[in-house]
């Protein structure tokens, strides 16, 4: 097996939910040796026998409320390059496993994944993806005009959470390797999503975005950027923003551009959308896919979760390994890989890292 880009990187993961294991999975997919610490006898909160997010790393069971458990965890963390945890602020400190408790490992990068961050008025409050999104402006912007819609937990937990924790930790690890000095990575989902909103916030500041739903070019209001129901009640996605792509789309739909009002005027959007909807509703999703997919019409069939792995493009790129996603992105020299994981003893984990460190 080709070594991953992060081969030799040692990470301790304190088991958690959602964005915490996703971050650890991403690091493990790319070659990091991650050891997950779980509570003895812990069951998955959703009742899963196997969580895809737990793939690619070995795990040990430790009771961190016991002195023996904490000492075993400490021995591993002392030898780690990085740690990932998603507890509420202050929990790790009360266990004696906080960022300041490892002076013997000054290069430790301490990754902290929370919804609200380590400080601020809401830092100690409970929350979930949807509530973290709520204060960023993002949730307000998504959905039909009459109510916001939760975008699964992709935008908050994973985009605004996991990927910011991963990128922050990699930046901190590079710094530690240059200077020998680790640091805390305070990854708050609310911060990450606010940052993801940079383009939309910039458009709003420039007067190019209405602060309401279903009124803008990227929120489903524009007829050239949205979804349409087909004859079989499945759907087609259209993103023909640029004029040349719009012209290609109209040509393939059999619409004379001269028969439509000016699409640059938002007042004309409902009429144009109604015209497109009437035509698209006459054929099935897959019929339209045969006409539009792979062209510059910027259109694609909206596939279900079950259908996605079978799409020819996804198969050609090996985007899925069976039903679960393959490591991403694809690196040319050190591609990510799915690796086995198993439960081991903390003694075995410690012995492995002691041997790697030369004692």
Automatic annotation (TrEMBL):
Lineage, top ranks: Bacteria, Pseudomonadati, Pseudomonadota, Alphaproteobacteria, Rhodobacterales
Keyword Transferase applies: yes
PANTHER family (UniProt xref): ALPHA-METHYLACYL-COA RACEMASE (PTHR48228:SF5), SUCCINYL-COA--D-CITRAMALATE COA-TRANSFERASE (PTHR48228)
Region (Disordered): 318-342
GO molecular function annotation: transferase activity
Organism listed in the record: Paracoccus zhejiangensis
Chloroplast among keywords: no
Protein name, per record: CoA transferase
Keywords noted in UniProt: Transferase
InterPro entries per the UniProt record, alphabetical: CoA-transferase_III (IPR050509), CoA-Trfase_fam_III (IPR003673), CoA-Trfase_III_dom3_sf (IPR044855), CoA-Trfase_III_dom_1_sf (IPR023606)
